[in-house]
């Protein structure tokens, strides 16, 4: 058993998964404490609702979890990809909302594009606009050594106000105070998911279909592509090498300025694509609301990347978990909890996800120490047994 545990501790993936699970459990425990402080009599019921998450509303609820996880996968990939290449992309919110506007604008205005290609062109535009929005911080970092955290935060606010202005002047529905619904030809196809994630409404047999669509598949495919690029290609190796040490990469013949710019552009493209996938969902999906608040999907991409330890495959699962918990927290309003408590609990869980990096280093060390202590005790016990057996043998000979 000890030998098996030692082998597992030497597997990086096992350590990463264990640290993320411990971080999640710590966050859930702290969230339960918040519920006890807020409303002790209903704390247990509230905690159960959070754990049920999307299952609280059946199959449609799980579809909604996947729908809201879709942009989180892309923004998590955006942050994680930049981090793997030595950059901190805090600008996913700006890249996300600018990409979202580009997709919605084309979805509303460019109705001359035939149905099979309309949503594809809209997603392509969202990806390109997100990439261009990240290009500016990339150039500033590569050629003027301007720290990307400062420049991306500034670009977040520029993107937010610019998107608000553009929405109000081009695709604004004044009656609903939201962006217009995109044309049917620009709505992402359901790809069979509407046959799985739906609820039947009472005896009438009416069907309440989830908003989830093929965007979830696209997000999964993008995560796999990013994993292959980072771990199986020379291009990904160069980007990561530049992130580890720019000077050493330059000495090895790698164009470090080009690598920095491309890293930011790819990260921005991923975030922009996430915006397009969220808002090309028809009348029942999300619409852009021009308010002076940064897109939360961009900032939630940071804990998603941290919880997934910047691994593209891990980001898929962490995004689904964050979406699941967030949806479960929203159902707390059915009990006597004020809306602010929901936000606090979700924030606590997300906050503890940042400790996954710490747990990744501490847990294996603690487990290895415990295994070494157990082995030492076992060896001492076996040595004492051997000495006792030898003594008994000598006494028998006498």
Observed structural traits:
globular; two-stranded antiparallel sheet; 4 strands; single chain; mainly alpha; ABC transporter involved in vitamin B12 uptake, BtuC; 3% strand; 398 residues; 15 helices
If you had to describe this structure to a student in words, what would you say it looks like?
This protein has 398 residues and is mostly helical. The protein has two domains: 1-38 and 355-391, no CATH class; 59-342, ABC transporter involved in vitamin B12 uptake, BtuC, CATH 1.10.3470. 73% of the residues lie in helices and 3% in strands. It has 15 helices and four strands. A two-stranded antiparallel ribbon has the order 1-2. Strands 3-4 form a two-stranded antiparallel ribbon. A hairpin with a 4-residue loop joins strand 3 and strand 4. The radius of gyration is 26 Å and the shape is globular. The protein starts with a helix and ends with a helix. The mean pLDDT is 86.
């Amino acid at each position: 058993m000890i030998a098996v545990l030692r082998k597992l501790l030497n597997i990086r993936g096992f350590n990463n998964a264990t640290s993320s699970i411990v971080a999640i459990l710590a966050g859930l425990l702290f969230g339960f404490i918040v519920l006890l402080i807020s409303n002790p009599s209903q704390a247990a019921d509230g905690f159960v609702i959070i754990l049920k998450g999307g299952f609280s509303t059946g199959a449609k609820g799980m579809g909604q979890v996947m729908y809201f996880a879709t942009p989180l996968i892309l923004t998590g990939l955006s942050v994680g990809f930049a981090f793997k290449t030595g950059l901190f992309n805090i600008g996913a919110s700006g890249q996300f909302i600018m990409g979202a506007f580009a997709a919605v604008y084309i979805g509303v205005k460019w109705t001359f594009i035939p149905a099979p290609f309309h949503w594809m062109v809209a997603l392509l535009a969202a990806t390109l606009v997100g990439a261009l929005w990240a290009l500016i911080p990339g150039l500033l970092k590569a050629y003027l050594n301007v720290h990307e955290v400062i420049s991306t935060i500034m670009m977040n606010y520029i993107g937010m106000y610019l998107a608000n202005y553009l929405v109000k002047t081009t695709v604004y529905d004044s009656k609903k105070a939201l962006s217009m619904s995109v044309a049917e030809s620009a709505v992402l196809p359901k790809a069979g998911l509407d046959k799985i994630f739906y609820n039947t409404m009472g005896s009438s047999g009416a069907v309440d279909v989830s908003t989830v669509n093929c965007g979830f598949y696209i997000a999964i495919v993008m995560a796999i592509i990013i994993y292959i690029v980072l771990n199986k290609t020379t291009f990904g190796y160069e980007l990561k090498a530049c992130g580890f040490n720019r000077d050493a990469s330059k000495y090895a013949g790698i164009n470090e300025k080009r690598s920095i710019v491309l890293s930011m552009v790819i990260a921005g493209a991923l975030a922009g694509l996430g915006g397009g996938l969220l808002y090309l969902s028809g009348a029942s999906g999300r619409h852009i609301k021009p308010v002076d608040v940064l897109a939360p999907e961009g900032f939630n991409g940071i804990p998603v990347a941290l919880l997934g330890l910047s691994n593209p495959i891990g980001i898929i699962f962490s995004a689904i978990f964050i979406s699941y918990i967030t949806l479960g927290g929203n159902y707390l309003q059915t009990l006597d909890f004020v809306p602010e408590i929901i936000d606090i609990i979700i924030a606590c869980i997300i906050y503890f996800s940042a400790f996954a990096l710490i747990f990744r280093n501490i847990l294996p060390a603690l487990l290895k120490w415990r295994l070494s202590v157990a082995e030492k005790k076992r060896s001492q016990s076996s040595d004492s047994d051997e000495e006792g057996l030898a003594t008994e043998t000598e006494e028998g000979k006498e």
